[in-house]
């Protein structure tokens, strides 16, 4: 049976922290019609998957009984869920990959490190074009389909010479719903994974910093948001350029391949607003 005695003070603090963290998640779930029964089934599957991957005993097979003991999930459910297929992590959306290369690969940047204006189709004497950019990432997608989508939401413009210009300020806010959901999962997963590692390990292996104040006027918050947005974008673009250069220098194969995620956010609300 699971322990039901009063948890120590540090554990009570942990539980209250989790409860606070869950409020915006539950609101998001309800926004999308995901009720408690569906969440419970997802939690069962996740508990089983995490226990199987991260809580193995050295040189011993991981059994249904041990996973049930660790997680509190009934053994019959453990057996059923272990037999289900696992979803592999999705690749970054095509649009994000194209943006990353266009804003980071030196071939697609001008002398000011800004994204070049690209001819839509390849021309004599130049290999650079919007079509070539898209196909350098995925040859199965028609570049015209992505171009039409971006034209419709203002991410790019097409001039009289049939050249494509990136409107960088419009690129992120106009991401598709599918892309936004992909980044929701990727970014919150990685942030929570970093927090968990920092709690488990000393010294903390990952940077996690924030600045927070109350007592400010809406105009002051807007000014700070504009400052944060500009400086954050400068940093993200610089990291993107450096990472693209590193990828180009690595060639086709890398031993001990690693990924990273560096992100920023800015949130504000009325100081007396109910908890989200």
Task: Characterise this structure.
It is a single chain. By secondary structure, the chain is mainly α. The protein is 54% helix and 3% strand. The protein has ten helices and three strands, in the order αααααβααββααα. It has a three-stranded antiparallel β-sheet with strand order 1-3-2. β2 and β3 form a beta hairpin. 10% of the residues are buried.
Helix coverage percent of residues?
Answer: 40-55%
Structural class: mainly alpha
Shape category: globular
Q: Report Rg.
A: 23 Å
Major sheet strand order: 1-3-2
Mean pLDDT value: 87
The number of helical elements comes to 10
- Poorly predicted spans: none
Q: How would you sum up the major sheet?
A: 3 strands, antiparallel
Strand content is under 5%
Question: How far apart, in Å, are the first and last alpha carbons?
Answer: 34 Å
Provide the succession of SSEs.
Answer: HHHHHEHHEEHHH
Number of strands: 3
How would you concisely characterize the structure shown here?
The longest helix is centred in the C-terminal third of the chain and has 33 residues, at 218-250.
Output the keywords:
276 residues, mainly alpha, 3 strands
Outline the secondary-structure elements.
Blueprint: H1 9-31, H2 36-54, H3 64-71, H4 75-83, H5 94-104, E1 118-119, H6 130-135, H7 143-153, E2 156-158, E3 163-166, H8 168-171, H9 177-200, H10 218-250
Antiparallel strand pairs: 1-3, 2-3
């Amino acid at each position: 049976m699971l322990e039901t005695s009063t948890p120590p003070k540090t554990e009570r603090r942990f539980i209250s922290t989790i409860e606070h963290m869950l409020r915006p998640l539950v609101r998001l779930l309800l926004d999308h019609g995901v009720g408690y029964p569906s969440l419970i089934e997802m939690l069962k599957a996740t508990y089983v998957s995490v226990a199987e991957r991260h809580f193995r005993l050295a040189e011993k097979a991981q059994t249904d009984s041990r996973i049930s003991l660790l997680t509190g999930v009934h053994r019959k459910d453990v057996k059923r869920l272990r037999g289900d297929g696992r979803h592999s992590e999705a690749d970054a959306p095509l649009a994000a990959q194209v943006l990353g290369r266009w804003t980071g690969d030196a071939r697609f940047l001008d002398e000011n490190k800004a994204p070049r204006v690209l001819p839509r189709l390849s021309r004599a004497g130049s290999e650079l074009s919007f079509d070539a950019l898209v196909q350098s990432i995925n040859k199965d997608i028609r570049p015209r389909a992505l171009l039409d989508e971006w034209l419709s939401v203002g991410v790019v413009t097409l001039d009289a010479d049939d050249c494509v210009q990136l409107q960088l300020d419009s690129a992120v806010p106009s991401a598709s719903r599918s892309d936004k959901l992909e980044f929701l999962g990727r970014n919150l997963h990685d942030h929570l994974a970093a927090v968990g590692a920092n709690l488990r390990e000393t010294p903390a292996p990952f940077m996690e910093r924030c600045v927070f104040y109350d007592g400010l006027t809406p105009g002051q918050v807007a000014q700070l948001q504009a400052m944060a947005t500009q400086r954050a974008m400068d940093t993200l673009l610089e990291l993107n350029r450096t990472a693209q250069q590193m990828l180009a220098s690595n060639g086709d194969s890398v031993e001990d391949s690693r990924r990273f995620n560096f992100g920023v956010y800015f949130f504000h609300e009325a100081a007396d607003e109910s908890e989200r």
